[in-house]
Specification:
37% of the residues lie in helices and 18% in strands. The chain contains 10 helices and 12 strands.
């Protein structure tokens, strides 16, 4: 991509943390948020990393986010908990919830932790991947922070991208990490296309007359398309019921469009599930079985013209290796918006 500046991970983390401190978030919590946001950029999830910083800051300034939340467990049993995020930054809320799920799974074998009164928390794989360090499988669901998907056959925006992520550890191979929206493209990708002045591929969006929509600057004239047609609509509905309705979080017409509203709390709902492998079988045996399956898939016969068969998560790991060494690529429009934000907050700009 032309006109891109590479910024080191430590430099970007410092910049983001200072921005959050400037609007009243404690230094320790600002550091946590910054690390998670840059982790998103490092793995290639550009629509959920520093790109979101100006929006987060606007919502904090607008009073839509609590900068001093009392994140706590509202209900719990042996293998479950419901976390009340007290309208705090989603990254802080989900980090707390994921740590609680891991802690409970060590005792119960499996732990399901629901979340209410949270906010946008970045890419799903950030949290599904945290249990990997504890020899656990992680599963994450969420209600998206804006409705861009109608029911199948309709045009009223009652559903969101409602993502899912699953992370499965391996032994010698890389973990298998699936991170996907229930729409063909996440709305964050539409926004990044708009900022860069790029067009969308056909199949991402449709206008209200059923015609393909490829100009991201006209996104409000249409809606995202679900994966697999009516099946994707069904998945979005069920994931929203589990991550939103079950937790007492927003779902359907109650979802706040945080792209357009800087003053209203979103009551975002999430779910994190941690599965302790040792409760099912010895960890080493499981990981070796995953390795064997990965190799069977990778070495399976390919179609003509296919160079290799890839596993979910490989692209993110490759991006991480490159970006940790060479820095996070920031396109010129994004860098300009971040430096404008720096001027407004009276903090040092990015180089």
């Amino acid at each position: 991509m032309a006109d891109v500046t590479r910024v080191s991970v430590p430099q970007l983390e410092t910049f983001i943390a200072r921005a959050f401190e400037a609007v009243g978030i404690a230094k320790s919590e600002a550091t946590i948020i910054a690390e998670l946001m840059v982790r998103a950029d490092a793995q290639g999830s550009e629509g959920h990393g520093v790109f979101r910083l100006p929006q987060y800051i606007r919502r904090i300034k607008g009073g839509a986010v609590n900068v001093k939340p009392n994140i706590r467990v509202a209900r719990e049993a042996a293998g479950m908990a419901l976390v009340d995020g007290d309208n705090g930054m989603g990254h802080l809320v989900m980090r707390f919830a994921t740590q609680k799920a891991i802690e409970k799974a060590k005792q119960a074998g499996v732990a399901w932790v629901g979340v209410k009164r949270s906010n946008h928390a970045g890419p799903a794989s950030l949290y599904a991947g945290m249990p990997l360090e504890h020899d656990m499988i992680g599963l994450y669901l969420a209600v998206g922070n804006a409705n861009h998907l109608p029911p199948w056959g309709g045009i009223d925006m009652l559903l969101s991208t409602n993502p899912i992520a699953v992370a499965v550890p391996a032994d010698e191979e890389l973990p298998v990490v699936l991170d996907m929206a229930t729409t063909v493209a996440a709305y964050g990708k539409v926004k990044t296309k708009a900022q860069r002045g790029e067009m969308m591929p056909e199949g991402w969006m449709m206008d209200r007359e059923g015609r393909p929509l490829t100009d991201p600057k006209r996104a409000n004239e249409g809606f995202l398309l679900p994966i697999g047609g009516y099946k994707g609509y069904g998945l979005a509905l069920i994931f929203g019921l589990l991550a939103g309705t079950l937790n007492g979080a927003a779902m359907g017409k109650d979802v706040i469009d945080f792209n357009a509203d800087d003053t209203t709390p979103t009551n975002t709902g999430h779910v994190i599930v941690a599965i302790h492998i040792e409760a099912f079988q010895p960890v080493v045996e499981f990981k070796k079985s995953v390795d064997a399956l990965i190799r069977d898939i990778r070495n399976s016969e390919r179609l003509p013209g296919v160079d290799r068969i890839r596993l979910p998560g490989e692209g993110s790991y490759a991006a991480r290796e490159d970006r940790l060494e060479n820095g996070i690529p920031l396109p010129a429009p994004l860098l300009a918006s971040l430096n404008q934000l720096a001027a407004e907050l009276n903090i040092a700009p990015l180089a």
